[in-house]
RNA sequence: GGGGAGAUUCCAGAGUGGCCAAAUGGGGCAGACUGUAAAUCUGUUGCGAAAGCUUCGGAGGUUCGAAUCCUCCUCUCCCCA
């Protein structure tokens, strides 16, 4: 059994710990849990930090519990959110829980017969049948309102005047009870979470102490930040999801490739299981030749393989090479249809009748009216004038008509706006 | 309940009867430079080839002409009770 605390520490994944946890962990295999809120039907890369934390526990010989918040998701965690959340309906929630469960099984070992195989639990299972009256008698009795109000997450809402409903206020008690329940029935002694969860977790350890005089521990992981101060895990287009349907493996890989140098050095420790030596040599390599972006490439490879598998990674890599590589125009033309489609999976596509190309077309009209690649002619013209448009990797201008010669593979055409935006046209 | 301020193009924020598709800043997009980075510089940012058209919380009205004036409505914020 290896020292998981040490592991997390060098990876920059330790924010806060309750005293005694290190001894507790070194004196034998323990069970630790981390909760996921089913707010959407997929996890996003922000959740990956939690997943990795659990993974490190498992690799160190401890038993991880991944909790899906079927019950807590019905309430909404007020922690560090400025306004009351809208409640999701039960069907959505149920659907989300199922989706998240399926995703989690990819990352941790849930199936082996090892003693420390991961377990998946849903707090709905023990909360659903718990009557309100019983709950406030059995559990609520042990925690004072003063204690609950003193939490930063609650205090903030009271101070700034936005307030919070009783529903949200009671969230920490439900989460605290989860911990108690897992402690009591599954010998889970540690709760893991993001740094925003500290207050909620400690309510749990407090409950365990007051009800049973038992010991339980908290460990939190710092919130992942970006060096430029913007929010991690978001792009202009939205969250980076783990579900390939919501964020294509290509887009996913691209996200990591585009991470800044400073961030890459931090992220590679958090999001990959590469060893300390491997990471240090990558960092050294990157410093010697930053333009090769060894860190970003390794990061992209590791995380994409972890989330989507080797094959998807290779396709994403190939797509990247073709879209950003050197001899692209010829390479693009040489692709067979199958590879071509694989590479451009997830790229917006329009189907256009072949008839529209019987005559050479004015590029402005073709790119807007005919294909919808641009929302307005003005924009298409502007882009063409600025030299921002490429057709099949060849820079295009507004006087260059589009003809049949631009058709690839008998029916495709690749429109590129700027460096990173693609649009596919399929002739039918 | 009383009093006051306000709602402008993605955001912030000017404009207070024609010169306003609307200053300026931010953001976005693009180009150059690079490493698909950062920083920087440049261009661009309602639709339309143009004439022109649609836009300044909503609905009406005054006027040759309204983001700007009037009426009503909706919403937001502040102060007092």
Automatic annotation (TrEMBL):
Q: What PANTHER family does this protein map onto?
A: TYROSINE--TRNA LIGASE, MITOCHONDRIAL, TYROSYL-TRNA SYNTHETASE
Q: Name one GO biological process term.
A: tyrosyl-tRNA aminoacylation
Recorded GO cellular component terms are:
cytosol
Against NCBIfam families, the record matches this protein to: tyrS
What is the originating organism of this protein? Schleiferia thermophila
Q: By which gene is this protein encoded?
A: tyrS
Name under which the protein is recorded: Tyrosine--tRNA ligase
InterPro entries xrefs: aa-tRNA-synth_I_CS, aa-tRNA-synth_Ic, Rossmann-like_a/b/a_fold, S4_RNA-bd_sf, SYY-like_C, Tyr-tRNA-ligase, Tyr-tRNA-ligase_bac-type, Tyr-tRNA-ligase_bac_1
Is Cell membrane given among the entry's keywords?
no
Oligomer status and interactors: Homodimer.
User: Which positions does the motif 'KMSKS' region occupy?
Assistant: 231-235
Q: What does this protein do?
A: Catalyzes the attachment of tyrosine to tRNA(Tyr) in a two-step reaction: tyrosine is first activated by ATP to form Tyr-AMP and then transferred to the acceptor end of tRNA(Tyr).
Give EC number(s), comma-separated: 6.1.1.1
Q: Where in this protein would one find the motif 'HIGH' region, according to its record?
A: 38-47
Judging by the UniProt lineage, the source's domain of life is Bacteria
The record lists the catalysed reaction(s) as:
tRNA(Tyr) + L-tyrosine + ATP = L-tyrosyl-tRNA(Tyr) + AMP + diphosphate + H(+)
Residues annotated for L-tyrosine binding in this entry:
33, 171, 175
Fetch the PROSITE patterns from UniProt: AA_TRNA_LIGASE_I, S4
């Amino acid at each position: 059994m290896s020292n998981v605390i040490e592991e997390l520490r060098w990876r920059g994944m330790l924010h806060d710990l309750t005293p005694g946890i290190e001894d507790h962990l070194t004196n034998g295999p323990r069970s630790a849990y981390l909760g996921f809120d089913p707010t959407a039907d997929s996890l996003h890369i922000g959740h990956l930090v939690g997943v990795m934390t659990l993974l490190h526990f498992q690799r160190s010989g401890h038993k991880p519990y991944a909790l899906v918040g079927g019950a807590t998701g019905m309430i909404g965690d007020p922690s560090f959110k400025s306004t009351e959340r809208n409640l999701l309906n039960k069907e959505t929630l149920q659907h989300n829980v199922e989706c998240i469960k399926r995703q989690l099984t990819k990352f941790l070992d849930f199936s082996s017969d090892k003693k420390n195989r991961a377990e998946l639990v849903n707090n709905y299972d023990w909360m659903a049948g718990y009557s309100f009256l019983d709950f406030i008698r059995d559990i609520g009795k042990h925690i004072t309102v003063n204690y609950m109000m003193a939490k930063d997450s609650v205090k903030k809402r009271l101070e700034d005047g936005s307030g919070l409903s009783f529903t949200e206020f009671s969230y920490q008690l439900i989460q605290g009870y989860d911990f108690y329940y897992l402690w009591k029935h599954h010998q889970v002694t540690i709760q893991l979470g993001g740094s925003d969860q500290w207050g909620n977790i400690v309510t749990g350890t407090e409950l365990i102490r007051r009800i049973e005089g038992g010991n339980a521990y908290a460990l939190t992981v710092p919130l992942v930040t970006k060096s430029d101060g913007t929010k991690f895990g978001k792009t202009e287009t939205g969250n980076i999801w783990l579900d390939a349907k919501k964020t294509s493996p290509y887009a996913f890989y691209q996200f990591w490739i585009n991470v800044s140098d400073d961030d890459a050095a931090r992220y590679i420790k958090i999001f990959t299981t590469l060893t300390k030596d491997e990471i240090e040599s990558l960092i050294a390599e990157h410093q010697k030749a930053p333009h090769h972006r060894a860190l970003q490439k390794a990061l992209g490879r590791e995380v994409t393989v972890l989330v989507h598998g080797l094959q998807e990674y290779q396709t994403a890599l190939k797509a990247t090479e073709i879209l950003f590589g050197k001899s692209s125009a010829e390479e693009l033309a040489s692709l067979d249809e199958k590879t071509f489609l694989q590479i451009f999976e997830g790229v917006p596509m329009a189907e256009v009748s072949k008839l529209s190309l019987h005559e050479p077309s004015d590029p402005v009209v073709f790119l807007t009216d005919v294909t919808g690649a641009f929302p307005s002619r003005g924009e298409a013209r502007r882009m063409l004038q600025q030299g921002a448009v490429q057709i099949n990797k060849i820079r295009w201008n507004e006087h260059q008509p589009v003809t049949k010669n631009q058709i690839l593979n008998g029916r495709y055409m690749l429109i590129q706006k700027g460096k990173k935006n693609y649009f596919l046209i399929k002739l039918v």
